[in-house]
Amino acid sequence: MIKPTHRPRKSHLGEGFFKYAVHYSGVFWLKTKRTCAAKCARKKKTMGSWLISLAAMLLNASKPILPPRTSTSNESESDPCKRFTRADVAGQMLTVRESRIDQWTPESAGNIWEMSGLFEGDIMVDPKDLTRNAVNNTSKRWPKAIVPYAFHPDFPKEGRDMVLKGMSELEAVTCVRFKAYQPEAHDSWVEIQGPNNTRRCSSAVGRRGGKQKLMLAPRCYAHGSVVIQHELLHALGFYHQHSAIERDRYVSIRWKNIDKASVGNFCSRTTENFGVDYDYASIMHYSPVAFTTNGEETIVPLKRDQKVGEETRTNNTLFSAAIIMIDKKWKQTE
Length: 334
Prior knowledge:
- By secondary structure, the chain is of the alpha/beta class.
- It is 32% helix and 10% strand.
- The chain contains 7 helices and 7 strands, in the order H-H-E-H-E-E-E-E-H-H-E-E-H-H.
- The strands form 2 sheets. It has a 5-stranded mixed beta sheet with strand order 2-1-3-5-4. A two-stranded antiparallel sheet has the order 6-7.
- Helix 3 links the parallel strand 1 (146-151) and strand 2.
- It is globular.
């Protein structure tokens, strides 16, 4: 085997430089690699932030555009009902104050039944209501929409005629029927009591079992049948319109204008609306100045073209929403 006579020429820089160059070229490559990795990470981070922002924009674009908040929103004022304990609720519901209906006149700004001194003005509360779902309790509904009634012996004839007129008007537009109480046929009935027994316009809500009272002082029926029908609707199981759970979408409660002792009268609760829209003109709606402490409005409609409780101040007929709710209430259970 012939050995080559030519050997590779060594660099004049020598092996030391070669090793030095290899070492620092590795360092340069490592630094370059780290720098690239950092740049890529920054790009990924930037890209991730951009994608998140884009997703948020698309998500917000899919949401309905809400109207700007205005001073009429309930959110502008703290709702004290949210801080109520169970004891607070019980105290508000069971407290009985002096009736002021003798001070009411047709020119008064509020409704006469708001001045009866009971819960929400005119609701006679059963302590059992504090421990059960009284609003949606089907046992509180009158079977077959028949409401037996009787007049207290002392109830005056002119008052009886007005009550019968109010009942007749209700029967003409709803499925409800009022029947004279017969002991052998009825185990629950409404006894209508008058001037010798009360100075209030008031009723319990729904069927209570046995005899239950519906109180009508002379002033309650002296100006037509609206107040009578209002109390009869309580006896049928309906609460005031403003206490509906969805009410904050329709009215603003001005808590600062409400008498402190009456704040509980404005708490909302879960009530059945049977698919019927909130009724500003309901015969069951508070007046705009109900329980005011300074003469200012306590309930303001969020729709400027609406007036709350207007119907109870202008005529003696029921609004169609109340009629629909009455019929749906019994069609769903009978």
